Amino acid sequence: HTTHFGYQEVAVEEKASRVAHVFDSVAARYDVMNDLMSMGIHRLWKRLTIERSGVRPGHSVLDIAGGTGDLTAKFSRMVGPRGRVILADINESMLRVGRNKLLDHGIGGNVEYVQANAECLPFPDNSFDCITIAFGLRNVTDKDAALRSMTRTLKPGGRLLVLEFSKPANPLFSRAYDEYSFRLLPKIGELVANDADSYRYLAESIRMHPDQDALKAMMEDAGLERVEYTNLTGGIVALHRGIKL
Ligand code: SAM
């Protein structure tokens, strides 16, 4: 059995360790690179995700593939002392950077840190009012299993939000974006993080990820209802939302 790591065909068992290598390598510079590569726009994408989450004081939230914790930090303030937020990620390096950052910002009391694989979440059924996975699903080997696992752990009425790179609608814009991703991105990666390969993987993995409608169909197959998406920045990114009824 094979799958893809960027454009390369790799054994299913190999993918997770290749992805782990990427995030071990980028963890320390992850936040700086995010701001640089997206020119700060990832902050707007994340803000919209928060707005669409419906999260209220007292809620239970899972931020899976949460990495350095941008969404967790916002949710922590929103759910208040009676709520809880779990920052979960498969990668120890990313979790450590996230945990240190949140503690530095005085965010603590209601946040837990869990090392977990999105494909088989270690939480009971019907646990969360909201689950977010931001720029994470693309890296998961078995995306259908991950969507099922997230749906299982949502409470009835709970929302899953998937923020992920997607497919720009306009072909001209798409060409410019390709130039940027395949020529400029690896160069920035080389200069700032001394790591062109990880940023080449980033560009390739984005192209291999299911487009807006394919992801919508996958979410419906996983058992989510009222699935809809919003294109952001011309479809470079899409925010999908589904509800467990
Ligand atoms: N959500 C954060 C953000 O938006 O800035 C981090 C996104 S980062 C690009 C992708 C994260 O997905 C990495 O921290 C990586 O370790 C994590 N990841 C990859 N595969 C995973 C899996 N199977 N289960 C959980 N997390 C995973």
UniProtKB/TrEMBL annotation:
<comment type="pathway">
    <text>Cofactor biosynthesis; ubiquinone biosynthesis.</text>
</comment>
<keyword id="KW-0830">Ubiquinone</keyword>
<comment type="function">
    <text>Methyltransferase required for the conversion of demethylmenaquinol (DMKH2) to menaquinol (MKH2) and the conversion of 2-polyprenyl-6-methoxy-1,4-benzoquinol (DDMQH2) to 2-polyprenyl-3-methyl-6-methoxy-1,4-benzoquinol (DMQH2).</text>
</comment>
<keyword id="KW-0949">S-adenosyl-L-methionine</keyword>
<feature type="binding site">
    <location>
        <position position="68"/>
    </location>
    <ligand>
        <name>S-adenosyl-L-methionine</name>
    </ligand>
</feature>
<dbReference type="InterPro" id="IPR004033">
    <property type="entry name" value="UbiE/COQ5_MeTrFase"/>
</dbReference>
<dbReference type="Pfam" id="PF01209">
    <property type="entry name" value="Ubie_methyltran"/>
</dbReference>
<dbReference type="GO" id="GO:0043770">
    <property type="term" value="F:demethylmenaquinone methyltransferase activity"/>
</dbReference>
<comment type="pathway">
    <text>Quinol/quinone metabolism; menaquinone biosynthesis; menaquinol from 1,4-dihydroxy-2-naphthoate: step 2/2.</text>
</comment>
<feature type="binding site">
    <location>
        <position position="89"/>
    </location>
    <ligand>
        <name>S-adenosyl-L-methionine</name>
    </ligand>
</feature>
<dbReference type="GO" id="GO:0009234">
    <property type="term" value="P:menaquinone biosynthetic process"/>
</dbReference>
<dbReference type="GO" id="GO:0009060">
    <property type="term" value="P:aerobic respiration"/>
</dbReference>
<dbReference type="InterPro" id="IPR023576">
    <property type="entry name" value="UbiE/COQ5_MeTrFase_CS"/>
</dbReference>
<keyword id="KW-0474">Menaquinone biosynthesis</keyword>
<dbReference type="GO" id="GO:0032259">
    <property type="term" value="P:methylation"/>
</dbReference>
<feature type="binding site">
    <location>
        <begin position="117"/>
        <end position="118"/>
    </location>
    <ligand>
        <name>S-adenosyl-L-methionine</name>
    </ligand>
</feature>
<keyword id="KW-0831">Ubiquinone biosynthesis</keyword>
<protein>
    <recommendedName>
        <fullName>Ubiquinone/menaquinone biosynthesis C-methyltransferase UbiE</fullName>
        <ecNumber>2.1.1.163</ecNumber>
        <ecNumber>2.1.1.201</ecNumber>
    </recommendedName>
</protein>
<keyword id="KW-0808">Transferase</keyword>
<comment type="similarity">
    <text>Belongs to the class I-like SAM-binding methyltransferase superfamily. MenG/UbiE family.</text>
</comment>
<dbReference type="GO" id="GO:0008425">
    <property type="term" value="F:2-methoxy-6-polyprenyl-1,4-benzoquinol methyltransferase activity"/>
</dbReference>
<dbReference type="InterPro" id="IPR029063">
    <property type="entry name" value="SAM-dependent_MTases_sf"/>
</dbReference>
<keyword id="KW-0489">Methyltransferase</keyword>
